[in-house]
Amino acid sequence: MVKLRINSATSLSFSYEVFDRFGRFLAFLNRNQPNPTSPSPRPLSYNERQLETGRALPYFIWPNINPFREADSAPNAVPLPGTANPVAERGELKRARDFVKNARAAGIGVFKGVDPLRFEAFEVRYLGRAEVPTGGVIDLSKNDDVIL
Predict the structure, then answer these.
(1) Distance of CA 64 to the CA centre of its chain
(2) Strand partners, 29
(3) What's this model's pTM, rounded to 2 decimal places?
(4) How many CB atoms within 10 Å of residue 88?
(5) Is 48 inside any structural domain?
(6) In 25-106, where does DSSP find H-type helix?
(7) How many CB atoms lie under 10 A from the CB of residue 50?
(8) What span, in angstroms and rounded, lies between the C-alpha atoms of 119 and 97?
């Protein structure tokens, strides 16, 4: 992972890709906190705050998410068949999924009962283009070896 210091208070981190195939910038934005023993606790990242408040839905793009971006190479980041759920049930990936589950249960943000989000962005893209997805998808709630 590459970390770019923007100023004394902010940094961007990149994993294997800097831009996706649509030209979107793929980065993690957070404040610099070099001393882990600092008296103030590290805040949630911008991405996590959006998930926690129901203002965004996760779109996990492998290998640019943990725990995969911690691997020393992209091939070593490939999960073995039958291991998706245990990987998804720990660390940052579990925390992100829990934020969404809690926001959905609380009916906040895009999950509001009055005006809930009907389709996720990737669904709108596929419906609008009338084409099938070009990438594979795995179900993080299962331990099968199926690529959708």
Answers:
(1) 8
(2) 12
(3) 0.67
(4) 21
(5) yes
(6) 46-52, 84-88, 91-106
(7) 17
(8) 18
How many structural domains are present in the chain?
1
Query: What six digits make up the tokens of 124?
Result: 């709108």
Q: Are 14 and 26 in contact (CB under 8 A)?
A: yes
Closest CA to 22 of 104, 122, 108, 97: 122
Answer for the pair 83, 126: CB distance below 8 angstroms, yes or no: no
Question: Position 107: which residue type?
Answer: G
The token pair that represents 21 in the structure block: 């195939």
Domain assignment present for residue 101? The answer is yes
Identify whether 19 is part of a domain.
Answer: yes
Q: Are residues 44 and 30 in contact, defined by beta-carbon separation less than 8 angstroms? A: no
- Look up the domain containing 93 and give its range: 2-129
pLDDT single digits (tens) 56-110: 888 777 776 777 777 888 788 888 888 888 888 888 889 988 999 999 999 999 8
